[in-house]
Amino acid sequence: MNSSTRPELLCIVGPTGTGKSNLAINTALELAKSGIKAEIVNADSMQFYKGMDIGTAKVPVDERFGIKHHMLDWLEIAEENTAARYQIEARKVISDLRAEGTLPIVVGGSMLYIAALINTFEFPGRDEALRAQLEQDLIDLGPAAMHKRLELLDETAASRIEPQNGRRIVRALEIVMITGEPFAASLPDQFESFLPVLEIGLNSAREHLVERLAERVRGMWALGLVEEVRSLESKGIRDSKTASQAIGYSQALASIDGRLTEEEAIAETILLTQRYARRQMSWFRRDPRINWFDYQDENLLEEVMSLVRTSLQLPGK
RNA sequence: GGUGGAGUGGCUGAGCGGCCCAAAGCAACAGCCUGCAAAGCUGUCAACCCACGGGUUCAAAUCCCGUCUCCACCU
Length: 317
Description:
There is one protein chain. The chain has helices at residues 20-33, 83-99, 111-118, 128-141, 143-153, 155-160, 166-179, 206-222, 225-233, 249-256, 262-284, 300-312, and strands at residues 9-13, 38-42, 69-70, 103-107, 197-203, 291-294. 49% of the residues lie in helices and 9% in strands. Strands 3-2-4-1-5-6 form a six-stranded parallel sheet, sandwiched between helices. It is α/β, with parallel strands linked by helices and 317 residues long. The chain starts with 8 loop residues before the first strand and ends in a 5-residue tail after the last helix. The chain is globular and about 60 Å long. Helix 5 (143-153) runs parallel beside helix 7 and helix 8 (206-222) crosses helix 11. The longest helix has 23 residues, at 262-284. It binds one RNA strand of 75 nucleotides through helix 2, helix 3, helix 7 and helix 11.
């Protein structure tokens, strides 16, 4: 962590359902009291999509209290998206905000997207034709054969990717074949921020979060998630590559089709959500810059604000 | 009350005389992660002798008897 340099951007991370969005809004509101304008930059990969509201727990407009949100509702359902594209778009937003003196607050739980945005890393290029070919090969030959192929081209990368992980093997092959250079295939040990950042993490006891997530999912169904998904069918959610894999949405579709009963769909969604939260934690845990807070803490906002003020070198309240 | 079926790890569930100090999946726990990432993947843990008691057998989770519990059907 780098507490001596003043952060030029705030970032709120953590597993789903920990209240990141609300904390971000409240933080922005608090900062406004100190005369600092802050706006939110969404880093939740499913809240990018227009119309996906209930299932992504998007904060309703009237609960945003006028705090402007960027990178929210910027994609049509059918649009495919990638972390690389997000990196470009979101950085553009951030540099615009900074240029006008607004403090960006990045909020979300999409690990790779946040990493891409906040850290100095560049995605090696891409080649659609090559990729299509590799993906076909993967289907035809299986991951083990593809792994062998990678081994011949880049031993180190091969040693770092499990022979069963077809997805990553394909990407590694793609990179090696187009760049002609070895592919690190592992996350850097050092976290290097592309801008001085103050990271705030929200979490709590696992048992509590697990229960809370279950309730949240049930609530989504009660609020009409299935209706929402129905209305998204005409926009192409079924064929979309990214939006259709959203937890809850894919289960709702299955229940519409009768492949799952409503109860099964809910149960599966709960399970996937809880599993997702676990993966998020295992990702975020290794980022030493994060200042963790307990979302159950009654004085959460005060404590966060106190850290924020100190970091931004604002006079105490 | 009668008939039939079942009782195996936290849950689901295979095994039906020796290869079972008991498969697999889920959950739990840990980890990976550089253009699909709410995705993709890996590892670990978990059954005091498999409801309980007795018996048959060289050998039983597996066969027999009894008890208890559950399910289905019947009167």
